[in-house]
Amino acid sequence: MAKGRNYLYTGPEIGERNDALQALRKALAKAAGFPPEEHSFYCGETKMGDVASLLRNASLFCEQRLILLKNAEHIKKKEDVDLLCDYLAAPADDTVLVLLSDEISVDKKIDAAIPKDSRRIFWELFEDRKTEWVGAFFRREGYRISPNAIESILELVENNTEALRRECSRLLPFLKKDRVIEEAEIENLLAHTREESAFSLFARIAEGDLARALETVRSLLAAKEVPVQILAGLLWCFRRLGDYIALVESGRCNDFELKKAGLSSKKAQRDYVAAAKRYSARDVELCVALLAKYDIQFRSSGSGVEDILMDTLVYALLIGRGKALERASYSDV
Known about the structure:
By secondary structure, this protein is an alpha/beta fold. It has three domains: 6-121, Rossmann fold (3-Layer(aba) Sandwich); 127-193, Helicase, Ruva Protein, domain 3 (Orthogonal Bundle); 198-332, Zinc Finger, Delta Prime, domain 3, CATH 1.20.272. It is 57% helix and 8% strand. It has helices spanning 14-32, 48-56, 78-89, 108-112, 127-140, 147-156, 161-171, 183-193, 198-207, 210-222, 227-250, 255-260, 266-278, 281-300, 306-318; strands spanning 6-10, 37-42, 65-70, 95-101, 119-121. A five-stranded parallel β-sheet has the order 2-3-4-1-5, with no helix packed on it. α6 packs parallel to α8 (183-193) and α11 (227-250) packs across α13. It starts with 5 loop residues before the first strand and ends in a 15-residue tail after the last helix.
């Protein structure tokens, strides 16, 4: 495999994207005879100047490097875009750089600086492909599962194969191979085994259920989830809500457009239908700005105030629908 390559992997299908990333790791290791030295950065947490410096400076300990730049959609400042594009135009010989984003696209200048054959969009799977994926997973493990049980899994689990793989694997120790897995068993097990996430927190917010939303926050923090990552998940959800509201208002709310927006599962659609009854397009804009404001607060505050900040954020999103920012200057966000 040629050295000095740049890749752009975008889209909401995290499982297939991770599979492609793992295939790239293996290809690099096979070509060189040893695994690459790997570094990961989150855009917004690390200065682009520091990332560029690492990219330009050869490693002292390894002949090849794999550098992952996550949340690449956040690279928006002109100076950061220009700095990155200068590197993309002449990548270091010992370095493979992969830009990652759950969004469909990144800054147009960055996109154009990466060869077309090195750009991949990992679209959310259609319902029939997700059904096939779940069925195949259980067959490989030696289990039989009913169509209704598969549908139940798809209704209760986040809408990507990474989450499906995690949740289905968690179910296996509780299932028996001498009978067909049915819907009631799946619903009962998932209720007791699935972990909370930013997506389940958004579902509580969409329902307007403050008590359960705060309970979900407690579970997430108890599980040592990083607050800024919870906020990143919520930000993704509110941006999708904005897309959904725009589709409804334009009369283009069909299966194809919902898939493009990352909302093809029935459960996700129910969540966003519920949320759209409580939030206007303006509310969504304010909630996105509020999440950006709290992101700064979390990064500048100690862990001792995480509980308070998360509670006040959830209250402001659910009860206030972000409207506190209408009384604040956007220069404070």
